[in-house]
Amino acid sequence: MESTSTKSLQQGPGSREEILRKLRERIVGFAASRVQRDAAEDLAQEVLILLHEKYGDLERLEDLLPLSLKIVRFKMLAHRRKARRHGEFTQVSVDETQMPDGRTDALTALEEREARERLVAAISGLGERCRKLLAMKLDGKSFAEIQASLGVGSINTVYTWDLRCRRQLMESMRDREKNP
Amino acid sequence: MSEDEIRKLLGGYSTNALSADERRMLFEAALEDQELFNALQDEDALRELLADPISREQVRRALATPRKDARRASFWSRRWLLGVAIPAVVAVIAIVIMNRANAPRLIAPPAQVGSNSIASNQIAPKEQAEPLEAKPLAKKQTIVKAKTLDDKTLDQLARAIQPPPPQLTAPAQAQLESPRAARVNIRAAAPAPIPDTIRQQFDAGLASGFVSNAPLYQGPLVRYSLLRSGPAGDAVRVEVSTAIAGYLALYQVNADGTAERVYPVNEPTLLVQADRTIQIPDGPLRIAAAGAKLRLVLVPAAPPAAIGQLATGQGGVIGGAVNGAATLGTGNAPIQAQPTPMVIDIPLAPN
User: Fold this and answer.
1) pTM
2) A30 vs B38: CB contact, 8 Å cut-off?
3) 3-state secondary structure of B306
């Protein structure tokens, strides 16, 4: 008990509370770019509650931030599902009432499959250089190795190419999600 | 953290290629930077997809499969190219049709072939049919026969044999297929140097030599057609075909016997290649003087013996008979110093 109250009182830089405070700001900012501001605030609040209640033992940024990214993604997915169910906003979500049985539910499996299909389709539309670059990254090659393999003079060029390729890939996936 | 570092860390994040320190640095930067956090959120979705073994395998297969549009599109599928090519083809066809419509009409008899009164009865039909094939043989025979001559005769022979005419370049030869192309090419190419003996021969010939009183040549080696144009047909040009290379000039001979050169203008003569057809002069002539005629003069560029062999098949008979030189090797006649001009009169009858 004492340790918990001690934790909650830690407000200095690098403390859990400080990390969560900044995380909330970032989550709201990100969600607001995709959904309405009110929904973005609610979504950030839900993420923080989950982090507080379920993952209260995590204090390091390296643990909290990737976890928050994942929770935000799931929450965004759930939000889009809700938006599709016209007239069911007042009802309790099936996702929230049913207890998970440890297996992937049919809807999630379907969405994962669709996401894979979008990814594969988007990769098929990439240029030859992006395809080579991505293949080498999947093979575990470092940027320096990719630079040598592609015969590029500067490694910054490889970073730039990689950034453009990933942007193209994700934009293509988003386009396919909006216009399947 | 610099932009390059951020790009590097973001690039490695999606494929789980970052070290623990790099991940921490990236997260710390993302916590302070909204834009980077948003990018990281997107990257995280990609990272999770690529981390899934099923997705990873599908991505690998997709990357191994060549792009559908990687092959170059065929020529006919490029519509923009057709949009350029079709008008270009139409334009070329239109130009060809217009050129044909504007070509000079052939009014005079298509070809007038004369015969030398002395030499023609000695020309074998075989040599008439294959004049060009006989050329190398004639040169060879001349050399063989020359070996039997004494030194003095050899010196005379060496002086008599003119250097071979300079050859046009290969592209120029290729363009000399049509009369129009021949005209253009002869004008465009640098004029071949004219040997001094030929130049002197033409200069002297205009005053008192072959132009006024030379024997006329009537044989198969030179053919001509008179081309008339203009409303009244009073503008004329001459289309000349020569079976041998030589130096050509065209003169207008008036009724009083005076002559003036009408082609070429700036030089006493011009070298023409064998088996070529040209139209001269460049612009049509309008001859108003009554009784005037045209006179075509061709001085063979090849050694006289070769021309004689070509025309007669008897090793210089034409040189002996027409030019006054006897057959080589007989030892009873002088060697021809200058090739004999072939002079052809072209009457200008009323159209």
Assistant:
1) 0.42
2) yes
3) helix
